[in-house]
Amino acid sequence: MGEFDLIARFFQRPARNALVGVGDDCALWQPTPGMQLALSSDMLIEGRHFLSTVYARCLGHKALAVNLSDLAACGAKPCAFTLALALPRVDEVWLDKFSQGLFDLADAHNIELIGGDTTQGPLNICITVMGEVPPGDALLRHTAQAGDHIYVSGTVGDARLALEVFRGHHALDASAMTRARARMEMPTPRVALGMALRGVANACIDISDGLLGDLGHVLQSSHVGAIIHTDWIEESVAISADMQELAFNKRMEFALAGGDDYELLFTAPADQHEWVMQAASDTDTPVTHIGEITHDLGLNIVDAQGLAISRRFASFDHFTS
Ligand code: ADP
Ligand code: MG
User: Fold this and answer.
1) Quick check: is 318 in a domain?
2) Last residue of some domain: 133, 159, 194?
3) What are the residues facing 245 on neighbouring strands?
4) Predicted model pTM
5) Average pLDDT, integer, range 95-108
6) Which of 34, 39, 146, 215 fits 295 for a cystine, CB–CB 3.0-4.6 Å?
7) How far apart are CA 309 and CA 304, in angstroms?
8) Does residue 272 share a domain with residue 217?
9) What is the mean pLDDT of residues 195-220?
10) Whose CA is nearest to atom 4 of ligand 1?
């Protein structure tokens, strides 16, 4: 099968909202008048971002999910995406499953694939997403304020738990591993929550490299510090039942520095707490209050008694790990 047959068979679908979709030199898209465009790209490389054991359908899902997570973190509404794909060989069964996972998530968010590039080479997937947000409403990293509450959506640590099982450092029974693996391989981008937090949250980021590391980006660009409590790691909706089985120190490490969670970490003024909880319930997304933004720079982790806990774990950084 040649390049053009491959594109036509697996990636070309009739344009819906696009004026021109797959098949011409450029796609044409008419933005909603008055809206700002939000753009983001994320690349996934075999051995670096995913294991060779991952199912093609999960990979199709995850490649788009991590990109949608960036739009979610900005409070943008997803519109369309492009796909640049390098494949070692044409494997029709693999392509069929990959495109299924990709389009299932695209359809769930009512967005379309409008173009891309296809080439032979080591497996590499790069998606660019395009979204829209009303001017001034985008959630950004540099706008956290001292006194803000810090919140996290969903559950954290499960993807790391699955990774540790793959690495042979930890054992889980089959059903627990299925759940943890789903969190690692099929993350849920929190698009609806991000949009519901427009005008409520002060700052927002999605957790890809680990909660503390990603919070660090918010603190640095907002010129503030933070206190993170640990009582929610003892027990809260942010910690899954499978994570509860771990010893506290492991659980804390996975929750705070695990990475690959694709949850939203955001800050909001204390007097917006009810609106935060309203956004959470309107979008069926659990949200947990985990700390406060402080004037004093630095990041302190304190237990329920207010005692400092030392930080021995680092977040993921591609060039230092
Ligand atoms: P060009 O050489 O003009 O850049 P290509 O031959 O690379 O165009 O691609 C042909 C058409 O197919 C273009 O519209 C391009 O956007 C689209 N396309 C290529 N690869 C993909 C892909 N993996 N997914 C979606 N569209 C693709
Ligand atoms: Mg091309």
Assistant:
1) no
2) 133
3) none
4) 0.95
5) 98
6) 146
7) 11
8) yes
9) 97
10) 25
